[in-house]
Amino acid sequence: MGRIIKLTFRDYSNILEKLSKTLQKSKYSPDVIIGVFRGGLPTALYFSHYFNAPLGILKVIAHKSNVPFSERKLEKPKVLYLPRINGKRVLIVEDTVGTGKTMSSVLRIIKPKKPKTIKTLALFTEINKNTPDFYHKIIKSDEWVVFPWEKKK
Predict the structure, then answer these.
(1) What distances in angstroms separate CA 24 from CA 65, 96, 120, one per listed residue?
(2) What is the largest CA-CA distance in the chain?
(3) Element (H, E) at 58
């Protein structure tokens, strides 16, 4: 692991404000927010309130093993709660998009439900085929973000 990026609650709040302004400028106003459990939930909840939109939750689990996270197999996403999205503008929210495998698996669940539009948002991302539509910062594959609510090791 390379550089660790430790965020404070103030950093996190500033990032949310910047992303809110970015969404406003884009004129994209989602009808439904979908958070990817666990990391995407705090940000998804924020945008659910910001847009006064219902919140859906999908859980994606990587099999635990001794191989690097990028090489782990993902289980099929589990829908914990999903409001009606047919014909709706959907915003899928994740904390960090690395390889893009989690986002791909979420999109495979959401697209068949025929939303009007799907946009994606992450606070941090690596550049890949699933780079989010909205993000705060591009990171390198050897960088690791620690959010203020995460256990300190």
Answers:
(1) 41, 21, 15
(2) 44
(3) strand 55-59
